[in-house]
Amino acid sequence: MAPDAIAVAGPAAAEVAIKIARVFTVEHRAHIARDTANSYAWLVRRTNELCGTVVRATDDLFDFCPRSADWRSNPVPDERLSGFAADPSVSATERREAADALARYCSVAKSQSPYHRHRYACLAS
Question: So what's the pLDDT on residue 56?
Fold first, then answer.
């Protein structure tokens, strides 16, 4: 009798397990999305604290040479922070703070999900 009861309960148990897994998956994805948004908001704030706000580059009407990329005008926070950290005209202390902030953000972004698609620059230690 017991083997028959187990066989009969199998599909019902599998259905319950699937429902539990679906709820968990939705909640887990929402949690990762919140964490990703929070860490990106932190990166934006920290980048603005260290680098200042983005300075829009003004092109010269008569300059036929393309402008070189400057971290000050880069709107992508991690790229701007990376450029700031690599700029020799910035003090060593500020460059180290920028490198530390970028490393912290990269570490958090990687830990949040193996599928995290954020672009980040790796700085040499």
Answer: 80
Whether the CB-CB separation of 57 and 65 falls below 8 Å is answered with no
The residue extents of the domains of the chain are: 12-52+71-125
Buried b (16+ CB within 10 A) or exposed e, 56-89: eeeeeeeeeeeeeeebbebeebbbbbbbbbebee
Please, which pLDDT band fits residue 118 given cuts at 50, 70 and 90?
very low
Instruction: Output the CA torsion sign for 106, 112, 114, 116.
Output: negative
Paired tokens of 80: 């701007």
Instruction: Report, in this order, helix, strand and coil percent for the chain, each rounded to 5.
Output: 65, 0, 35
Report residue 62 as tokens: 């008569």
pTM for the full model? Answer: 0.69
Q: What span, in angstroms and rounded, lies between the C-alpha atoms of 42 and 104?
A: 11
Q: What band does 114 get if pLDDT is binned at 50, 70 and 90?
A: low
Calpha distance 47→56 (Å, rounded): 16
Residue pair 53/84 in contact by the 8 Å Cβ criterion = no
Q: Where are the alpha helices (DSSP H) in 52-86?
A: 77-86
